[in-house]
Structures are given as structure tokens and as C-alpha cells.
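Lab notebook, bench 4. We co-purified these components, and the gel suggests they stay together. Before we commit to crystallization screens, I want a quick structural picture of the whole thing.
Request: model the full complex, all chains together.
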Amino acid sequence: MSKLDFLFKPNSVAVIGASNNEQKIGHAVIKNLVECGYQGTIVPINPKEEKIFGLKCAPSIKDAGQIDTAVITVPEKFVEDVAKECGESGVKGLIVITAGFKEVGHEGLKREKRLRDICTTYHMRMLGPNCVGLIDTHTPLNASFTPGTPYQGNIAFISQSGAMLMSILDWSFTSGIGFSQFVSLGNKANLNEIDFVKNAAEETNTKVILCYIEDVVEGERFLKTASEASKKKPIIILKSGASASGAQAASSHTGALAGSDTAYEIAFRQSGVLRAQNMNELFELAVAFSRSPISHGDKVAIITNSGGPGIVATDAVEKSGLSIARFQKETIELMQNNLPPEANIYNPVDVLGDARPERYHFSLEAALADNNVDNVIVLLTPAAIIDSVEVAQSIIELQQKYYHKPILAVYMGGKALEDGVELLHENQIPTYTFPEQAVNALQGLVNYARFKEKEAKDKDQEKQEPVYQGDQRIIKSIFYDALKEKRLVLRGDETSQIAEAYGIPVNKIHLARSAQEAKSISETIGYPLVMKISSPDIIHKSDVGGIKLGLHSAEEVEKTYERMIKHVKNLVPEAPIFGVELQKMAEDGPELIIGMTKDVQFGPMIAFGLGGIYVNLIEDVSFRLASALTSRLEVDKMIQETKAYTLLKGYRGKKKADLEALKTTIQRTAQLVMDFDEINEMDMNPLRVYQQGALALDIKITIEHLL
Ligand code: COA
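Here is the predicted assembly.
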């Protein structure tokens, strides 16, 4: 029993705004409910009608008896009153099809908020508003105004766009694809994609979860739910709005606030979600996951009746990161003894243009029986003598026999092959028109298998770094002082104190406000040291003579202080000057960067890569959400994704750098930014990592007022 059963498997459904007028949505919903074979009670609600679609009407929901779910199809001005009546009558779920809420602007948003409040008051859950409705083909229930009900199947499709849902439904009738659930999310005012992904993951009729979304509204909850759900079933998401103008279109579409695409990319990867790049890919993957067994490895055999497509498929396999299987000796001998001498017996196996179905059958079975083969792609082009149906029969028969290895069919053609394609569809064999589509889908199957394997392995090795007990009081008082002075960019001496408070190795910065103070500080730091002007308005310090390196004595420091302040004041008289920062000269070492930006949906995001002057040139960065970096394993992976890692391991005879110190620095930075919401941006550049230890030379932190 799932938590949303009152929506997917209700005992009774009312349609408020049901109509006898065939042109109206309220009619279409009643028609779907009846025609899909729903076995529960259907009550049309209409104050003027006796009967609709042969069913007895009730004048209002209050007269309808016990109703689990109400579908609302009355104009927007009546929706709130009707929803209240539903609440008073004990309805558990609302499906609000009516449009005219947040998608139409400010007033609509207010209406939507009131509607949500009504749901909260009466403990109702709501799908929509501004949606097409919901379908469960196994109940069966079609509480929507779609033109027809999808075939029964094992794909749950959750879509933020109603139009997309309708198009997919229409396409599914011609392609023979079946669905377990169809959910149109609409404005997601109460229930959103997270609730439905969770529900589909727990539900027995669904094998693969497919989503089209424009935004995620609760980042943290999404990560948690998707991570758990993807361990049970594959989740494939097409997230639109990846391009800048796409994001704008998405936000004007449903009033969604689009998050940054990088954050989505890493959030999906982190939670095991497969991301489809376009509609084609979404459904190519869905077909493979819905019909194929789980893949147990990345080695692919290709059987073809023509050279060209075989080469295209081979190229695609190699490009995708899968590998072309090397047959065992026995398989090669078997092929040699049974195929014509002109046939290519190595992978890809070319059974030649004159191949009869028996030759396909023989080669396919030989490949499937080979322990070096994990998956097979069967390519077929329309040669005059080929019987596409017989080849399809072989594929079907052998998929049943070798049920643990995915077979993907590529029937490259149209008319001549359509009977074969139909048979393959009917028998749940994933079938594509071009080799690249099949390879792409196979890659998805293999990636998901790898994710599951890695999950199991990581679980054994998982080491959570103990939470570092940083000195939060110091940090809070620094924020307090800065905000009191209306400063959002912290000074170097402040950021180095913050780092120190969280155990981040830092080349400490001291602020001197007079020449005398500079002199005495220098005596405690030691020489050689560096002096930098401290001013929020001066970003390029060297341009105004605001940096001096290699100072060797207290006298030099005293003189430099006077000279630097005078010089900078002359050049930029309007810039406020706090004093001069003093810092010990650090030894040379590889320069790295750790950065943090915040994403609206997913929170702080950490970047790591080559730093110093290389940052923009090389763009060698890997990203993680800060929340993932509590795992040492994840920090390892983050470092290993960069070129910097090659350098740190000891590139060309150089000594290995202290990777443990680097990992600790990354983890503590992640913890710091998670502990303090006030931190808006942070940049540690350069961070030098030595053979022993690490040292942050420059840390920039921008803060914000929390409301
Ligand atoms: N209780 C019960 N029935 C009521 C009612 C109430 N409080 N108020 C009105 N009705 C009846 C009407 O009398 C009518 O029945 P009738 O045909 O027998 O007269 C029926 O409900 C529908 O009302 P009507 O005023 O005819 O509205 P409509 O059908 O033209 O439009 C919507 C209603 C909901 C379809 C429309 O407002 C809307 O939002 N359309 C967009 C939907 C959409 O695109 N959704 C998003 C998809 S992605």
C-alpha cells in the first residue's frame, strides 16, 4: 500500500464540473473514467444535470457520499470554494485541472497560495493546479482529459508539461509502448515530482521512472528521495531549461525559478539519476530499461548483415565508453566452422548480405553463449532475401533463453522491416532504427548497472569523516562586526581567522592599522613576509602599488607601511583603507583552488581544480554539492576527476603531494559553508599543497544578511 493510493487507487472519484457537453474538459474526464474500466464509484458533480454519461449526478460534493479523490474542472473563480467543500466532505485527494494560477502572474500566485492553504487546513493532497490529471493503467484509472488511455506497461511517466504528456501518449499508441502511471504535475503547488518519484519507486507495477521537469522545487528533499529511489529503480530525467534562454522560457512557462544547470547536473549524478539530453534519448532509454534485463558488464557483441552499419555501431560503442567484446577462442572456431569464408567472424560479426535467418540465429546464439559478451546489438538492413520476421523470432527466442543478457535490435529501414519491428515490439525487445540510438540506450543500461554496483561497494567502504568541531563563536562575531559596518566582503585577516576556526590550514593574515603595529606584528610572524593593502575597493592591488613581497626586516616593514598607504591614497583617494595585511611568504608548491557558490535549489556547491593563474586558462574543475562531501570517498573521486590530480600524484618525477591534507581541507570547507548559511561565496585561491600539509594563501568570503 503506497501513501498516494487515494489518488492512484481510489475507491471513489467525483468530477466537479462534469458536463454533458462533449467539448468540455469536464466531459472528457468522465468519459475517460468510464472507458478505462475504472471499477470504483464515479460521481459527476453538476447542479443542473440529472445524469452525465449515464451516471447519476450529485449537485455538490457534499451530496456525493464518501469520495476519496475529486477532479476539479470548474472555472478558476469557483475553485477555492469547491476545494473547501471537498475538505469539509472528507475528500483526501484533489486533482485540479483548472488553469489560471501561478502561471498567470502575481494574482494567480496569491490564488494558488490560498488553494494550497485550504489543502493544508483539511489535510488534503493536491495534484496541480493547471494539470492534465493522472492515470494508473493497472488500477485501471484515468482521471484526466487525455485523448484515450495508454497501454498497460511498466513505465511511470511524470511530466511538468501537460502538452508533452499528451504528445507522448499519442506517440505511444503507434510505438506500442506501455505505461504504468501517467502524472501531469502542473504547477506543483502541493504534490511535486519528488512525491511521485517516491511513490513510483515503491509501487510494484513500475520498472522504470521517467520524468520531464523544468525545475526542482525542494533541492534537499529531491536529493534524498532520488538517491533512495534510484537504488530501487532507474530514474531517467529530461530537465529542460539547460540553456540560458531555455531557462528563461521554463521560468515564464510555469513561473518556475530555474536553478543553475551545473547544480542539476551534479545533483542528478550524485543521486544516481540518468539524465537524458533530449526527448529522443528519454524514450530510447525508457524502452531499453522497460524491456531489457539488467546489464552485467560493458562488453558488446554486434551481429550485422552489412559492413557499414556494423562500423557505425562499433564507432558508437567505442565513443560511448562501452567496449567491443573479444570473443573466446571456442566462439571464433565455432563461427569459422559454420559461417561462409567471406563472413567476418570477429566482432562485429558480419553474416553478409545474403544471410538467411538461420545464420543470424546461429551467430547470435554463439555470441550470447560467450562469457566475454555482456550485451548484443543485432543490426538488420533490408536485403532482398532476408525475412525480418524470422530474424525477430530468433531474437525473441534467444532473449528468453539468455534472459540475463540484453539484446537490442536495430532494424534499419521502414516498410520492408515493419512486420519484424512489430513482432519485436509485441515481445518486448527494445528496437531502434539506427545503431547510435541502441548504443546510447545500452550505455544507459550499463551506467545504471555500474551505479548499483558502485553503491553496494561504496557502502562497504564508506567512511564518514567525523564532524569537525569548529569554533563557531569567532565566526559569528566576525559576521556580526562586518554586517554592522555594512561590509559584505570580508577582510583577509577575517577570512584567515574563519579558516583557522574550522581547521583549514591557512597562511595567516594579520591586519596592521599603523606602521608601528606593522613593525611589531612582523617581529612575531618572522621573515621574509608579504604586505598587501587592505581595502574593499581595491581588487587589483598590484596595479596601485598595493603589494610588496620579500620584506626582510622590521624596519623595512615600517617604511613600506608608510610608503604604501601614501602611494595608494594618492592614486585612489576615494577608496577606504583598513590598513595593511601582513603574511609570511609561503614556499612554492602546486597551486589549487577550492571555491563555493550557492545554488537556489541545491545549496552550496564546491568546486576544486587547478588554481593560481591557470584557473581561467585550463578550466580544470570538478564540482560537488557540499552535502556530498561528508563522504571521504566522494572527495577522493572529486579530486581524481581533475588534471590537478595527475600533478599531485607526482607528475614527471615530482614528489607526491599530501593528498590527505587536501581532502581534509576540502571537507572542512564544505562543512564550513554548510554550517553557515550567511556565506554566499567563498574562494580559496591559491591553495598550495606540499609534500606535507597544505596552505591557503588567499581566501575571499562574501556574506549576506539572513532574513
Ligand atoms: N460545481 C459543479 N459544477 C459546476 C460548478 C460548481 N461549482 N460551477 C460550474 N459548474 C459546471 C458548469 O455548469 C459546466 O457544466 P455544463 O456544461 O453542464 O454547464 C461545467 O461545470 C464546466 O464549467 P464551465 O463554466 O462550462 O467551464 P469550462 O468547461 O468552459 O472551463 C476549465 C473550465 C477548468 C476547463 C477552464 O476554466 C480551464 O481552466 N481551462 C484550462 C485547462 C487546462 O488547460 N489545464 C492545464 C492543462 S496542461
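The mean pLDDT is 92. Worth comparing against the SEC data before the next meeting. Residues 435-461 form the longest helix (27 residues).
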